[in-house]
Design brief:
- The chain has one domain (about 10-210): Rossmann fold (3-Layer(aba) Sandwich).
- About 35% of the residues lie in helices and about 25% in strands.
- It has helices at about 20-40, 55-60, 75-90, 125-140, 160-170, 180-190, and strands at about 10, 15-20, 45-50, 65-70, 115, 145-150, 150-155, 155, 180, 195-200, 205-210.
- It has a six-stranded mixed β-sheet with strand order 4-3-5-6-11-10, sandwiched between helices.
- Helix 1 runs parallel beside helix 2.
- It is globular and about 45 Å long.
Length: about 220
């Protein structure tokens, strides 16, 4: 199952009940502004932990040259993604897949980018390790792994609000917590990535772009 579900319920245009994550509504515009620059011009983008599916549908509408592959470990989330995708009428969204980031084999290939937003701080550390290792298995030279969310840097939080958020997460579950970008970068380098770009985002979040090394 998904580790944290901060959902409200809304109705779609077809009156189908749908989960809604308010944070996804707020951050989708700033994230899109980065994705427009860093994603490939064509190909398939795999989103890990798509949640309610708000991001993938919104991005797919605005980046129609790309094919979007949503995924989530939680069956209710996948049903929500499927319903939201159907309501959108978009042809460039594939059916959601069940993917556990921790798995040694995600059962997928042929993707040109991996995207993950707001997962690693509300999941056990092995999910972060699996996310980066899995992306490393899938991506070719210069293809991007994009991670969005709150981070500490050099063991220090970027703002008091992030420190308080980290404390609240760890109080709810000791396996959760704001991750340190230095540790994430070390993991990525061990899987063949190089840090390409760090973009400051609203609400003390970061967009972090890694790219596979090698000839491309």
């Amino acid at each position: 199952m998904r580790w944290l579900l901060p959902w409200t319920m809304a109705s779609t245009s077809t009156n189908r009940p749908s989960r809604l994550a308010s944070a996804a509504e707020r951050n989708r515009g700033p994230i899109l502004s980065v994705l427009e620059r860093v994603l490939p011009k064509q190909g398939t983008v795999l989103e890990i932990a798509s949640g309610a599916g708000q991001h993938v549908v919104w991005f797919a509408e605005r980046l129609p040259q790309l094919t979007w592959q949503p995924s989530d470990l939680d069956a209710d989330c996948r049903a929500n993604i499927a319903g939201r995708s159907a309501d959108s009428g978009l042809a460039n969204i594939l059916p959601p897949r069940e993917i556990d980031a921790r798995a040694q084999d995600w059962g997928i290939d042929g993707v040109q980018a991996v995207l993950c937003s707001n997962m690693i701080h509300i999941a056990p550390w092995p999910a972060t390790q699996g996310l980066i290792a899995g992306a490393g298995r899938l991506l070719a030279a210069r293809q991007p792994l994009f991670i969005y969310g709150p981070f500490s840097r050099g063991g220090k939080h970027s703002a008091p609000s992030n420190e308080a958020f980290d404390e609240s997460l760890r109080a709810r579950n000791p396996d959760w917590g704001v991750r340190d970008l230095d540790e994430i970068t070390a993991l990525a380098e061990a899987s063949g990535f190089a840090l390409d770009e760090i973009v400051e985002m609203p609400a003390n979040n970061l967009s972090v772009v890694f790219r596979m090394t090698g000839e491309g």
